[in-house]
Amino acid sequence: MMAAFKPNLLLRTLGLWVLSSFVFLNFASIPAQAQQPPQQQQAETAKPSWLQKLGVKQAEPQEPEEEADDEDANKNPTPPGEGALPVVNPAPPIQVPIETLICQNECEVGAGECTEEGARICKMKGKCAVWTTPYFCKDGQTCENGRCKSGAVKTLVYVALAALILAFGFTIFSYWRGLRGSPRELAILFIAKIIEYTAYGATQLTFVLFLSTIVGLSDMQAGSYIGIWSTLISVITMMVGALVDVIGIKRTLLLGILGLLLARLVMPFTGNFWLVTLFGFVPMAIGVAIMAPVISVGIKRYTTKEGASLGFGLFYTLMNVGWAAGAWLFDYVREQFGDHGVTMIPGLHIEMHTYALIFLIAFLLTIPTLLLVLFMRDGVKRSETGIEIEPTKLATGRGGFSTLSEPIKKAAVDTVKIMRDVFKQRAFWVFMGMIAILIGVRLVFLHFHYTFPKYGLRVLGEGVKIGSIYGVLNPVIIVILVPIVSALTKKVSSYKMMIIGTLISAGSVFLVTMPEHTFDFLTDSFVGELVYDWWLEVAPVDRKPIYMSLVVFITLFTVGEAIWSPRLTQFTAEIAPEGREGTYISLSMLPFFLGKLFAGPLSGWLLETYVPEGGDLSNHAMVWVWIGAIAVLSPIGLFCFARHFRAAEKKPAESAE
After folding, report:
1. Per residue in 291-330, is it b (16+ CB within 10 Å) or e — as a string?
2. CA 69 → CA 73, 76, 78, 101, distances in Å?
3. 439-473: buried (b, 16+ CB within 10 Å) or exposed (e) per residue?
4. How far apart (Å, rounded) are the C-alpha atoms in residues 375 and 436?
5. Of 39, 104, 242, 504, which is the most buried if we count CB atoms within 10 A?
6. Confidence of residue 391 (pLDDT cuts 50, 70, 90)
7. pLDDT greater at residue 385 or residue 198
8. What percent of the chain has pLDDT over 70?
9. What digits encode the pLDDT tens for the residues 69-108?
10. On the CB side of 462, how many CA atoms lie within 13 Å of its CA?
11. Between 648 and 116, residue with greater pLDDT
12. HSE on the CB side for 418, CA within 13 Å?
């Protein structure tokens, strides 16, 4: 209860750290204007009209000129029809008064929208606009909000959305019905998880963009930086368990939330490398590392043995929902303010870059999480007989830190002894080698976070919903498929499922490297209308073939993930020796730690080499050739070491008999 909450000395110290950080920032932070590169200082329009999206603006009244006719020709747009795009179902061109348009120097833009008369498109040819009417909406389609949409697809969309909402509601209801009798702390934990993953999902997609655009790091530097930072999170995560046992779930969560609040408050207001690192990424690493394992511990304590599986199932579902919400938020903020927009913050009179604004929004989302956690009670536990409250005995006063550190030291010493014994076992190193084989396909996830945001902006164009292409599509499919796949394949061995799943996931990466028009047949079908007009809202002239290749690739990759990912954790637990399950599961992350250190610099190198900013993008598919070549090592390794995997699976079964 709130009346009984007394911050311990550790929390007070962290609070003083936060306060001192703010004072320091008042003197050390750089001006807001200096955060932006010179070419990005001008704010983009929040809600541009379709003419503004085309790069066209109203001409200002001009005084009569006495210049030569040749110079006048360079100032006026090319007449309608000249240099037009290929015409399908030709229609009379839309009459647009030439005097309402002007040219923009060094600008190449394209956009289009349907009208009742047809479609209007503006492309910059050299320095002048070319207008044409390339097509009408197809038979059975009507023009709605600038997009051609058919009644049949509209019905399909609405029915599918209704079905998804009903299925999701039924899933949540079924989970919660099985968790009746759990304390309110469990509900608080789940709500906090959704909010935090929304904030984390949005910022995760922004990290590399923030580091390059605002902090000024190169692609290689930003990739290496985020790889080291991600590894730091994993290291801290391994150390959190003992802390939870000593100070309890509530206080541990508060420590993590305070770290997140500090980081998300500092990062929007400075682009200084050292300030961003010390007061941004470091406390954020601590906060992120604390939140995930503590929530898992909380689910175990707040449920019965029978209800634990339901609790973790609901946790996994809500985690994906939160991630999808974060990716949507990332796209929405960029759509409203532009990828290089600078926005004046009301009341603060501070100009803020769009990517910095995303961190500020994440800070605002963290506040309700803090308020929710304050309503949690210490020492709450759900037993078979009901809810029990055993307050955590945390020493305070002069010996507070000493008393607090003793259990942590003891836990650390015991952990080191166990690990030392495990490291001497040959079976453990065989186990580590088997787990390391799967790093290849797991690194694809990191490239979705490190590589894809910049790749999408440079290859597809600014303003594209790059968050939705992966960050929304992947979690939605996972939430739907995982329960179905698990129910249908529960009698199939984990090894077989991992081979099938990794083969699908790794193979799907190469779909992006196929000839660019491979999936054109989908573009002209109802799938194309779903993707371009309903989901990503891409104008006709901006519909590059790579869009459909990426959608097909991510869809199939996620299908494979739904097959192999749940079985990886199960396989790890199955082959671990009795009494060493926890040690094996925690140490199974070590190969992935090393993978993170490798994936970060690789991401930067791929971007600088094949999709350099403002450079030649003709070899962009090579990014996926490298990623796919590394991913395919996983199914190949599973095939090559089949004998070891099958033997490892048989041992637990034989010992059980």
Report:
1. bbbbbebbbebbbbeebbebbebbbebbbbbbbbbbbbbb
2. 6, 11, 14, 18
3. bbbbbbbbbbbbbbbbbbbbbbeebbbbbbbbbbb
4. 42
5. 504
6. low
7. 198
8. 68
9. 444 444 444 444 444 444 344 444 433 333 334 333 333 3
10. 16
11. 648
12. 15
Find the largest Cα–Cα distance for the chain.
100
CB atoms within 10 A of CB 28: 13
Q: Is the pLDDT of residue 443 over 80?
A: yes
For 31-86, the DSSP string reads PGGGGS-GGG-SPPPSS--HHHHTT--PPPP-------HHHHHHHSPPPTTTTPPP
Question: What is residue 329's predicted lDDT score, i.e. its pLDDT?
Answer: 96
> Does residue 147 carry a pLDDT above 90?
no
Mean pLDDT, the chain, rounded, equals 76
Sequence-distant (6+) residues with CB within 8 A of 176 are 314
Q: Is the pLDDT of residue 648 over 70?
A: no
Which one is predicted more confidently, 604 or 87?
A: 604
Interacting residues of 314 by C-beta distance below 8 A, sequence separation 6+: 172, 175, 176, 179, 190
Closest CA to 185 of 268, 108, 297: 297
- Exposure string of 491-523, with b = 16+ CB inside 10 Å and e = fewer, is eebbbbbbbbbbbbbbbbbbbbbeeeeebeebb
The pTM of the whole model exceeds 0.85: no
Q: With contact defined as beta carbons under 8 Å apart, do 471 and 326 qualify?
A: yes
Asked whether the beta carbons of 432 and 590 are under 8 A apart, the reply is yes
d(CA 434, CA 412): 27
Query: Would you state the structure tokens that stand for residue 592, as one six-digit string?
Result: 């992935």
Question: Is the sign of the CA dihedral 453, 458, 459, 465 positive or negative?
Answer: positive
Name the one residue in this structure whose structure tokens are 């029809």.
Answer: 81
Give the number of residues written for the chain: 657
CA 537/CA 465 separation, integer angstroms: 9
| DSSP-assigned beta bridge partners for residue 122 | 111, 131
The three-point CA angle 380-381-384 to 5° equals: 150
pLDDT at 13: 44
CA distance 324 to 417: 41
What does the block give as tokens for 653? Answer: 């079964």
In tens, the pLDDT along 270-280 reads 999 999 999 99
Best CA proximity match to 331, nearest among 243, 151, 201, 506: 201
Contact 568, 484 (CB under 8 A): no
What single string gives the DSSP state of each residue in 265-278? HHGGG---HHHHII
Amino acid occupying residue 292: A
**Spatial distance between the Cα atoms of 630 and 351, rounded to a whole number of angstroms:** 42
Query: What span, in angstroms and rounded, lies between the C-alpha atoms of 435 and 192?
Result: 32
